[in-house]
Amino acid sequence: METPPVRRLELALADFAERYGALTRAREQIRALSVTACSRDDVVEVTVGADGRPASIRFVDERFREMPAAQLGNSVMEALGTARAEVEARFSAAMNSVGLPVQASRETARSRPQGPLWGRRPASSSTPLPPDLRAAVLALTDSVCDAVRCV
């Protein structure tokens, strides 16, 4: 028996609401993302934000004054690299939690997804949506994509 159009609309809207909520939570996680990492020698501590840019660099104690410049530079770069790797992992986890693939560049991943957020149903297993319902679902998709772009 075929699902009535009203029920299909209810299901589509419920699916949309669930995914929109997940996207909103992921967006907030990404906005609040900040990671602090320390170098292996415990001399430097670096904090980076969601964009991977350093927010702060702190020397843990006075040992940095006795270090050769190259060694101190290596400690800074090590802590920065560790913090950035953790930011990338957390960003990927947030994006994967809502079913969006993480691409090589976060800027690309933040751009509009190529397909609908909840995927296409195989044509053979479902009836096509009526044109007005399809237009509504596409409009909702555009709204969500615009919201994700603001991350």
Q: How many DSSP helices?
A: 4
Structural class: mainly alpha
State the low-pLDDT regions, or none. 104-125
Q: How far from one another are the termini? A: 42 Å
Q: What topology, given as strand order, has the largest sheet?
A: 1-2-3
Verbal overview:
It contains four helices and three strands. By secondary structure, it is mainly α. A three-stranded antiparallel sheet has the order 1-2-3. Strand 1 and strand 2 form a beta hairpin. The relative contact order is 0.16.
Question: How would you summarize what this structure contains?
Answer:
The protein is mainly alpha-helical and 151 residues long.
Summarize the topology.
Blueprint: H1 5-31, E1 34-38, E2 44-49, E3 54-59, H2 69-97, H3 106-110, H4 131-149
Antiparallel strand pairs: 1-2, 2-3
